[in-house]
Amino acid sequence: MTGNLATMACAGGYLRVRIGRTQFLLAVTEPVHVSRAAGDDEPRTALQPDDGVPVLSIDETLRPAAAGTATAGCRLILRSGTENIAVACDAADLVGPEGVKLYALPPCMFTPESVFSAAASLGDNIHGVCRAEDLLAALASPPGGYTAGAGDTP
Amino acid sequence: MTAHTCKAWVLPIDDSLHTAIGEGEIAHVLPGLHPLQLLPRCPTWCRNVFRWHDRVVPLFDLAALLRPQGVAVDSQAIAVVAYPGPDNSVHYGGLKLSALPFGRRVSDEQQCDFPASSPHWERIASSCFEDPLHGPIPVLDLARVFAIESTHWV
Hints:
The complex is a heterodimer of chains A (154) and B (154). Chain A has 154 residues and is mainly beta. Chain A is 8% helix and 37% strand. Chain A has one domain (12-140). Chain A has a 6-stranded mixed β-sheet with strand order 7-1-2-10-9-8. In chain A, strands 3-5-6-4 form a 4-stranded mixed β-sheet, with helices on one face. The longest helix of chain A is centred in the C-terminal third of the chain and has 9 residues, at 132-140. Chain B is mainly beta and 154 residues long. Chain B has one domain. Chain B contains 3 helices and 11 strands; from the N terminus they run ββββββαβββαββα. Chain B has helices spanning 62-66, 121-124, 142-146, and strands at 5-12, 18-22, 26-31, 37-38, 48-52, 55-60, 77-84, 90-97, 102-107, 125-131, 135-140. In chain B, the strands form 3 sheets. A 6-stranded mixed β-sheet of chain B has the order 3-7-8-6-5-4. A 3-stranded antiparallel β-sheet of chain B has the order 2-1-9, with no helix packed on it. Chain B has a two-stranded antiparallel ribbon with strand order 10-11. The longest helix of chain B has 5 residues, at 62-66.
């Protein structure tokens, strides 16, 4: 996987997802949906909610969470082809494109299980930017299959 | 005939690991701790980014690349370096340092073999010189450093 800023930019804005101290952006055109435990104010993205999707709890390193550390403020439902996974996350909201500036990542930041295709500055924060397909593929890959990115500690 | 000399910056990577870059390749030195943003699932040698002026810049940890089993050392400074990208545009990256860089005047007569500290020097360095204090110091090819592909780094 390599980053291509032209394909990552989205005039419609981005969905900002927070899991622990990690925040990342997905273009609103990505096949994702956010559902919350209650209320109907979830951000509108390309897909509508779909029941019966298995929920995966991951931590801020974007790896399967240890028991008891799961977050559950909302669910990010990822869809790629026939695959669906719902990821438990702390928060999600929509941000407009005007404050988001994208930056390419160099080849040395990619591995076969990379998630982020670019970085973005938004206000005082820096976020990774990913595609639903890449996040889904990384979460579906067997743990321990690749070690260069292991041991992330914020 | 007088030997040709040039100025280099020597970059301390950890207690016993030094490398060097050309005088014109260093854009800025950020002393002390600098706020970093971790991008999970990136390789251990390049998994943080930081703000520098109006940019988001990747931080490369050479110690993590060359001594993957070594103990991580806290960054005491960051060297912001400039290198040519594939399209000859100027790219910026950060190198994690264990101490502030210092200058050396180097002559052709100091050229020597790469040190035995890592078998990988020849993949990321273009030459090497013998320093009277620190022994052999490889001169980095920065474009190659930031273009490392993890799948080829075994």
